[in-house]
Amino acid sequence: MIKRFSSPFFILKKRHFLAGSLVISLCLNSGFTVASDFAFETIGVTAPQEEVKGKVSSGGAALAGATVTVKEDPSRATSTNESGDFAINAKVGETLVFTAIGHDPKEIEVAGPTMNVELFSNLENIDEVVVTGYSTQKKGEISASIVSLDQKQLKDVKSPNVSNLLQGKVSGVDVVGTGRPGQQANVRIRGRSSLSSGTNPLWVVDGVIMHGVPNINPNDIENISVLKDAAATTQYGSRGTNGVIVVTTKRALREGEGVFSVNLSSGVSKFNQGNFKLMDSQQLWDFYQTFPNQKDIDPNVTDEVLGTNYDWMENGIKAGAVNDFAASYMGKTERTSVYASANYYGEKGSIKGYDYERLTGRFNVDHKLTDRITFKPKLNASYTTYLNKEHSLYDMMLNLPWDNPFNADGSVKNPQDESADFVWFGRDHRNYLYDRQYNYGKGQTFDMQGNFDFSYRISDRFTFESMNNLTYYNQTTMSYADPKSNAGRNEKGTIEQFSDKRITRFFNQMLKYDETFGKHKVSGFAAYEYSDYTYSSLNATGKGIAPGSEILGNAASVLNFGGTKNDYSFQSGILQGTYAYDNRYNLMASFRVDGSSRFGKNNQYGAFYSVSGAWNIHNEEFFNVPAINLFRLKASYGGVGNVPTYYYSSYGTYRLDAQYNGDPAAIQKNFQNANVSWEKSYDANVGLELGFLNRINLSVDLYHKNTSGLLYYVEFPSTAGWEGYWLNIGGLRNKGVEVALNGSVFGPESPFQWDLGFNVAHNNNRITSLNNDQDIPKGNQRFSVGHDVESWYMRKWAGVNPENGDPQWEAIDPETGEVTLTSNYNDAALQFVGAATPKFQGGFNSAMSYKGFNLNASFAYQNGGMTYNTAREWFDSDGAYASYNQLIFMDGWSRWSPENPNATHPRAEYNNTSLSNKVSSRYLESTNFLRLRNVTLGYTFSENLVNRLKLKGLNVYVSGDNLWTSTKFSGLDPEAAILGNDNSADKAGGGDATSQYPAPKRLIFGLNLTF
Questions:
Q1: CA dist., res. 736 & res. 762, Å (int)
Q2: Are 526 and 511 in contact (CB under 8 A)?
Q3: Which helix H or strand E contains 912, and what residues bound it?
Q4: Which of its termini does the chain have fewer beta carbons within 10 Å around, N or C?
Q5: What is the pTM assigned to this prediction?
Q6: What whole-number distance in Å separates Cα of residue 963 and Cα of residue 974?
């Protein structure tokens, strides 16, 4: 190779200078060329290398883990810390390349010692790594239905519960919660696929299968992956039939300086009354005047009642304080990575009298003991307390404004005191405030999870992963009823104490394989897994106590006592393999065998499998559409299982809590059925992913899920001796479509960024078979072939008879099927009148950023579900419950009168006996809503100011939750009403909307500091 020198300015290394000076001089003055392998080197006269410092951000927030590389010398590279800071040796004129997962790369020429860079989000980065369960995959290799959310997407709503963070963010994932501090939300993925077994998804934290929803600090979460179809969940076998939610907690990934962060937020929660408005004193009096049977009204009800106008609802609610204080440390050396955090969360309920507090701590360590062995211990602990002197929401609704709960001297009235010299107008003579001044409950929960994990790198291809977890849960609660209270008077005061303990163990030993050769990539694992669970509880109630005593042993005698113990275990073998070719074709297959102690020997083991594939069409040579940067097709099929909620379903069991002549006695409970088997669901999924202009991304999934062998507890007649037995009785089907659309309004070069996202899901549910095709009653609902699993079954309301104002229902001739109208409730026909299952649900979001400012908003919505508003039986009763307070009519409602014959409400009478307020579709209401789930305005301060304050990062924000809801539901909160009064995890959809705790409106101010 020949090099021509065009400049006389160069420097020779010392060892070459003397020997070569004459030759070089001649060449330079004659224009001759010099061979490049001549024994000397040239160094251009340029500026020396200096340390360049700066910060990388995205959307106004610091971007950790971004890679910074000198383009001219790729060996010089570094990455940003948690605060987005970096430092690298480079000289003026060189180019720095900035890259980060999920962002477009950027190149900037060095012009000075400092440099701040904004990277723009690439909404669909095909190389992003996603946690898919026991392993990780690049997005471009995933063939199953999996959605991943990073920490930025999870930080909007203020809640101590991880389940609440998912509301409205993932298509096909329905999250329903209430406003009680600390209460977990109910999560359902792709509809309900069981009659009586669990319908909540499986939760996995750092690879460990949890018992229920994990009690962890949301600030510790790095990302959440939602596994929806069988291809994704088969690796969890019978544990994954309702979907899987995989939580990955934080750990330091990049070497560098340790980062200490403090996050402080404080605010208030306000009771959200929705459309539920009760009458005041004058309105109730006016209502009484409309009763045609005035002579039947309590003679104490005179116009003197207008002298009292007490607002029971206003008295029982308040602005509750919310405080969330968190601190964390993250650091990594060549051999050790550490993440440690502590958090305090405290909230006072928006209904007076309920205080919730939680302390959590986490310690994650990865230590490279040798080049082959890495230890990965983890410890997470939480301590939760509550004090319950909560006002009764039900009593706040029913009590009349004519009743003042306080005497003139400020003492609390007791309407049940026979010597009282006042009139109490409310029917039940209930002033809950009297007992509330004495009685209370409180509890403490300690929950700890410890991991002793390690990995051994056998070779470049094989790695052995060992996961070993122990969890310990202990709860103690106490309930106190003072001798002076109405609740404690008969027993001269009571003290009840309850304690329970839960221990779970989880072991997974896995051999992983990973190899790339040419265009081929093969990976997989084989694993053995074992887990078990033991639970015990003890409770006792003593009576006859000294006022103020909380010690059970101080009670004069035992009123009752009890206790229980149960356990179960699983063991499993798992195989999974993946294959990828040339970033175009991807295949995955999984197989799992589960053994469960909940079944007898006949059916103790079940086998589950799945296969899936994906095709990256955009990487094909023949595909040349510049506007489309992503075009993927994927398909999957597989089977998963489910187990009964009862731990001993196959076995004959007895209750031993009875006695005969003072000796222990056994009572028959569960009848033996050795043939009880797994519920099995077979799921097909087809998906399409499209990306346009590197700014707009669309994903569509179609699924069809058939479940057979539905588990149900069949009750025997009371004369049978046994209570009942478990049986596989039928099947049901869920099918639906899920759509997610995301995009950036402006290109990456714009200083103003605006990202928008939308998701919607539709699910159709049908029962396909039942035992002998016989319907199964379930309260106001009914299981029936061809109907939704949450179908309402009751009398159908037919409105008001315009001639006389009588209520009307449909009557059906059992022989001819002819439909007529009747005003006799008992002649009306029971029939299917709707379903609790929503037809559509989802959410949408907006994220704006300009320089240091960011404004984010998220919405959630639901359409098509029905709930039974039981509260209206009492508070919209047409006079049947005249001594309860009554609802103010919603817009469009009206009462019948001869002048208003076409009304929505029948004529009212004092102590109405028309049965117009009894169970019928009259009180079935739509749960449709659109809710502004959260809006947050934040500002990240400039680096100049931050440096002057000797900080690494500073951000402030104000955030609002549930500030606006659009709904026609007449109760407090349509979302809370979906749960019904039964908050058990597997019974959501019951729809009894009497006194559910509504999600509060919340305003939070926050400060984030990084040192």
A1: 5
A2: yes
A3: none
A4: N
A5: 0.83
A6: 15
